[in-house]
Amino acid sequence: VQLQACGGGLVQAGGSLRLSCAASGRTVSNNAMGWFRQTPGKEREFVAGISWNGSITSYSSSVKGRFTISRDNAKNTMYLQMNSLKPDDTAVYYCAAARTAVPTDVMNYYRSWGQGTQVTVSS
Length: 123
Prior knowledge:
- The chain is an all-beta fold.
- 0% of the residues lie in helices and 50% in strands.
- The chain has strands spanning 2-6, 9-12, 17-24, 33-38, 45-50, 57-59, 67-72, 77-82, 91-98, 110-113, 117-122.
- The chain is globular.
């Protein structure tokens, strides 16, 4: 499966962005999916995950209450609504499809990765 992330950009602190991750090549409707982010010199970190049918979601403590993950299996697409953005949210955001049906924050369980989209939050 190929994953294409988009929707990143430059936004002021307190603003919002919506990221999308479109899958092609095969359906991901049976797979949990997730968003990770990475800044230079740091390890990639888990942001949010969603189960195959959207019934279970998981968030890192740093984004819980501000970000919302969702998916539309009919469109083979996952989303990340990011509100109340902070400069610390600045990173390259990656989407990924897991080998599991329920979300996990463990990178090794994700087998397909998108190319990343840059999110920059100015103060």
